[in-house]
Amino acid sequence: MFDSGATGFMLLSTSLVMLMTPGLAFFYGGLACKRNIVGIMMQSFVSLGITTILWFVIGYSLCFSGGEGGIIGNLDKLFLNGVTPMSAFSTDGRFPEIVFISYQMMFAIITPALITGAFVNRVTFKAYLIFLVLWQIFVYYPFVHMVWGGGLLASLGVLDFAGGIVVHATAGFAALASVFFVGSRWDKASKPNSIPLVALGTALLWFGWYGFNAGSELNVDGITAIAFLNTDISASFAAITWLIIAWIKQGKPKFVELLTGSVAGLATITPAAGYVSMHSAALIGIFGGTVCYFAVHMKNKMGWDDALDVWGVHGIGGVLGTILLGVFASTVVNPAGANGLLYGGTGFFMIQLVVVTGASIYAFFFTYIMLVAINVITPVKVSEADEQLGLDCSIHGESAYDIGL
To answer: Average model confidence (pLDDT) for the chain?
Structure first.
């Protein structure tokens, strides 16, 4: 008989993670210009449909079926073959496998959607749909299997509590590759069309992140609670750190800066949430707010047109959080974890550093090559005329508002 408490908690966590994708759509939709709100929001929402189908058909099987110690799983659970309502997720049978399938599916949905903020109003919808499928199969699924599915990286002792490597590093560096491929926007000076929409999106992301991080314990215990609290601590410290730096540099306390800082803190704590102390989470938030802010600043100086700062916030946040996990992790906090550099775990620190670097490099180069290949099939970048008109009208034939552009 399943544990009703654990089952209920995991269903709640699944719902919270699902809410993050609409939250991301609102966040990106508010940051985009008025001509491209529908387009950027649709790229998030369409992942709910496409990724669910892909996960049902092959995704879950490739990530979590067979392939022990390897790079990818097998096809034994193609179309969820053999999964029944009474199939248990693990040997202790706390909750049904279908709950775990659903929970991990929500991670798969939001990860490629994160990338879209980098190339807002520059990519055709057909090309994005192909990108959505191929990127998951060749980037996301292998890293899920290697880290969380009993694959190669797990066997080497790599830890990633909720997605610093698997989600944020891979998505962030894929975003940077896409920026290099599609080039700059016609109008780089466009401002957010709706700061309240950005605030709403941030609120939904922050709220959903509790399911993202705390739910990754896959149980209801003390580690669940500390992952929950660490999530809020890091987000809060990062938000205020980012706000202070931006206030000093820009002369005004800006709301969008506060909101962006909180997301940077959420991304940075993600790999470490259940492995570090609350005091370490505060330091991780401060480091995340500082390093991600200056990464965005550097990106702007370099002229990389990552429109909504996906690389600086998610990519650098994921890499930094994974490295800081290698510094602050403690088996006193979580006996199932490891000791970081501060506690004598030099080997663990080095493996975290090497793996997150390798994952980022792979995601960057594979994404760029994949976009080159997709461009042979169908144009990836929109025409200049379509970009100037806005993708809402030129591609989707819709407008977010009934007046103006």
So the answer is: 96
Rounded Cα gap, residues 170 and 271, in angstroms: 13
DSSP string, 34-76: GGGHHHHHHHHHHHHHHHHHHIIIIIHHHHHSS-TTSSS--ST
C-beta neighbour count of 362 within 10 angstroms: 18
Predicted confidence (pLDDT) per residue in 63-103, tens digit: 999 999 999 999 999 999 999 999 998 767 899 999 999 99
- Tell me the residue range of the domain where 74 lies: 4-396
- DSSP for 286-313? HHHHHHHHHHHHHHHHHT---TT-HIII
Q: How many domains does the chain have?
A: 1
Instruction: Measure the CA–CA gap between 306 and 211, rounded to whole angstroms.
Output: 28
Residue 405 pLDDT class (50, 70, 90 cuts)? very low
Give the CATH number for residue 144.
1.10.3430.10
